[in-house]
Amino acid sequence: MTPEGSAAGLRVAVDAMGGDDAPDAIVRGAALAVRDGVPVLLVGDTARITPLLPDDVQIPIVHAPEVVEMEEAAALSVRRKTESSIRVGLQLVADGKALAMVSCGHTGASFVGAVLVLGVLDTVERPAIATVLPRSDGGQLILLDIGANVDCKPEQLACFAQLGAAWAEVRGVENPRVGLLSNGEEGSKGNEQVRAAHPLIAASGVHFVGNMEPSAAFAGACDVLVCDGFVGNVLVKGVEGAAEVVQHLLREHIKSSVTARAGALLMRGAFTRFQNQVRWDAHGGGVFLGTKGVVVVGHGRANAEAVHAAICAAHRVATGGLVASLQSRLSAQSKSA
Q1: What is the pLDDT along the chain (337 residues), one digit of tens a residue?
Q2: Is residue 205 domain-shared with residue 265, that is, in the same domain?
Q3: Selection from 159, 78, 81 nearest residue 113 by Cα
Q4: Which residues contact 220 (CB under 8 A, 6 or more apart)?
Q5: 57: number of Cβ within 10 Å
Q6: Domain total in the chain
Q7: Are residues 63 and 185 in the same domain?
Q8: Are residues 130 and 164 in the same domain?
Q9: In what order do the strands lie in the sheet with 294-297?
Q10: Within this chain, do residues 253 and 225 fall inside the same structural domain, yes or no?
């Protein structure tokens, strides 16, 4: 039985040793999640974690003496460090002892480990990592892949389209529109990979709306945007960088005059809502789509708020039946093919 099938009483396993400010920021973020009612367990070095636990929350710890360092090769570290916090957390999910796993550490090791320990869904050759970004029309855009597969075959992009559409449906989007990231909306645009993927996605059973430029996608022309992991990772980092520049420039302009500061006070609520929409630490990181278990990877620079968001996202995705929904869509499409 998958963790999704027995969710009652299960906790989200959190890699306490992954991230630039681990375990401190991870423990603080886990405590925030527990205070919000999300059940959590921490995985890592008990001696380092225990002194950081706040007095007002009870969080169980599963001891894992090894840590996958950021400079280590992903596949080798997962195979050799069987007692690492990443490997132990994934095993808890595989054994049905945890609802999902969250790590802000080595993304490559989490990905390889998820494939090896959890396995992949039927018909999935390579899982993808997806994230959610704000759109200018007030909606949200699911983007995948954002880093798991830097080189993709067209058939894999077609599978990503199905995975992204299924996740959008789990999130409550009816008949989600799927776009293929390209440098123009015409079917003849794009590199060889994009041009070959276009007819495959069109025949995949999703509501395909064709090639999509980033500006159109962020304006609301699609709900799911598909690309390879190299392009997706660069796009996400570009969006995060642009958002930080905008926020910085706004602060500088507001500080430039008394009139601007007075206006900013009147618009404080609007500015707060804007920051909550574009903050890199507000959306919970990336979700693995295509693995037989829920894994969420956060930013390496994660603060407590980012960890909190990632844990809540993992809990929401797992209790929402993501894995079962993905397998159902993939199975139905396989039978109709």
Answers
A1: 344 444 557 899 999 999 888 899 999 999 999 999 999 999 999 999 999 999 999 999 999 999 999 888 888 888 899 999 999 999 999 999 999 999 999 989 999 999 999 999 988 889 999 998 889 898 999 999 998 898 899 999 999 999 999 889 888 899 999 999 999 988 888 899 999 999 999 998 899 999 999 999 999 999 999 999 999 989 988 887 777 777 777 777 777 777 767 776 666 666 566 555 555 455 668 999 999 999 999 887 889 999 999 999 999 889 888 888 888 877 776 666 5
A2: yes
A3: 78
A4: 135, 136, 137, 139
A5: 14
A6: 2
A7: no
A8: yes
A9: 61-63, 40-44, 12-15, 100-103, 294-297, 286-289, 128-134, 140-144, 224-226, 177-181, 207-212
A10: yes
330 domain residue, yes or no: no
Structure tokens at 253: 């302009």
Measured CA to CA, the distance from residue 20 to residue 173 in angstroms comes to 35
Show the tokens assigned to 160. Answer: 């990503």
With beta carbons less than 8 A apart as the criterion, state whether 20 and 301 touch: yes
Domain housing 114? 1-123+290-320
